[in-house]
Design goal:
This protein is of the alpha+beta class and 209 residues long. The chain has one domain: Alpha-Beta Complex (Lambda Exonuclease, Chain A). It has six helices and seven strands; from the N terminus they run E-E-H-H-H-H-E-E-E-H-E-E-H. The longest helix has 23 residues.
């Protein structure tokens, strides 16, 4: 089934807090404006296009999680074109997986930081070739700087040691290709995330007057 793109997160006292996607979404992304304009010139509704690709990404994640937990993925809510595109990403994941020893501990896990007051739902935490990692699966066209801010925030939601952070790009293309980047220290990225989080809460107060 399709998941809600806008997750809701609450502290123990019931206070609503933002998710990591909301916070990193505060960054200025001029490339997205150019992309939307280009689609508009082609007569394509960028919002519908984006939502379609988001559904494909959600289904690709579902296929990977079903594979890791040895169950059948739920695909009934998706069109054939979406299923085909998601399968392309899944096949890219399998091509990557062949090269590693994968031992998941937490997958698609939703958590909240009581200390920093934000939430997030990360894709994978576990052992990759004997090293504890947080892995974020991305089905778009590349790996971008703001993704590291998001995965650094995921790391703070896990009360266990993290040795590496990995972003795995598994595109919707048919060639089973993938790209990945691995980092061990995201302290500066998390500092930048916290600056954005501060801005979020300050801006919220400003709007209240």
């Amino acid at each position: 089934m399709k998941s809600n793109a806008h997750q809701r997160y609450k502290l123990l006292d019931g206070t609503m807090v933002p998710g990591t996607t909301t916070i990193t979404g505060l960054l200025n992304k001029p490339a997205l404006i150019i992309w939307a304009n280009r689609l508009g010139l082609q007569g394509i509704d960028s919002s519908k296009f984006r939502d379609d690709k988001a559904d494909i990404g959600t289904l690709a994640h579902e296929m990977i999680l079903a594979h890791l937990s040895k169950r059948k993925p739920e695909t009934e809510d998706y069109s054939k074109n979406q299923i085909d595109a998601a399968e392309n990403s899944f096949l890219s994941y399998l091509e990557w997986e062949k090269q590693h020893i994968i031992e998941p501990k937490l997958t698609e896990f939703k958590a909240v930081s009581e200390l920093y007051k934000y939430g997030g739902a990360f894709d994978f935490y576990g052992s990759i070739d004997g090293t504890l990692e947080v892995v974020d699966f991305k089905t778009g066209s590349g790996i971008y700087d703001e993704m590291w801010l998001q995965i650094s925030a995921y790391g703070k939601l896990i009360p266990e040691p993290i040795q590496r952070y990995r972003i795995l790009n598994i595109p919707r293309t048919e060639d089973e290709s993938f790209k990945e980047e691995v980092k061990t220290d995201l302290s500066l990225h998390f500092e930048a995330f916290l600056k954005l989080l501060d801005f979020y809460y300050i801006n919220k107060q400003i709007k209240k007057g």
